[in-house]
Amino acid sequence: MQRRHFLKLTAALSAAGALPLWSRSLMAATRPLLPVPSLLEPDAQGHYTLTAMAGTSQWNGKAVPTWGYNGALLGPALRLQREKAVTVNIRNHLPEATTLHWHGLEIPGAVDGGPQAMIAPGATRQVTLRPISPPRPAGTIRTSTAAPAIR
Fold first, then answer.
1. How does pLDDT run across 19-39, given as a tens digit for each residue?
2. What are phi and psi of 18, to 5 degrees?
3. 99 close to 117: Cβ distance less than 8 angstroms
4. Which pTM value belongs to this model?
5. Contacts of 119 (CB under 8 A, 6+ apart)
6. Residue 89 to residues 51, 77, 92, 112, 122: CA-CA distances in angstroms?
7. Buried b (16+ CB within 10 A) or exposed e, 4-23
8. Domains of the chain: which residue ranges?
9. What integer best gives the mean pLDDT of the chain?
10. Domain 47-146 indexed as CATH 2.60.40.420
11. What confidence tens digit (pLDDT) does each residue in 135-146 have?
């Protein structure tokens, strides 16, 4: 390899290596921040209530329709303990059927949302789950709402 080609290749690789750092900081400067979810406390019986609802949120200076739990966007955080049963009432105030899936939480399929566990508009589903995740560092488990069709 000639010295000239080696220098060109080294310069190109150095520039390409710096590109992710530059583009990441550029994207972060223009991307709006998502709100940090609040912690939902259980009621006197130790039950949580999540309500799927439509709302409006500001995104890039515009009002946009959004869905969330207990609010217009995203949902609250729930603090669960491994092997301790918890009851969650899931209410659907959306205009169409939905379900709730617990991403990353190891629980039986009967209580983990999916097409077999759709909640009709205006209906409530109560699930009692006992997280059985194997020992690992604390982390964030998220939920998601799903509609039968994306419009």
1. 665 555 665 666 667 667 889
2. -80, -20
3. yes
4. 0.68
5. 52, 90, 91, 92, 97, 98, 99, 100, 125
6. 8, 15, 10, 13, 13
7. eeeeeeeeeeeeeeeeeeee
8. 1-31, 47-146
9. 80
10. yes
11. 555 555 555 555
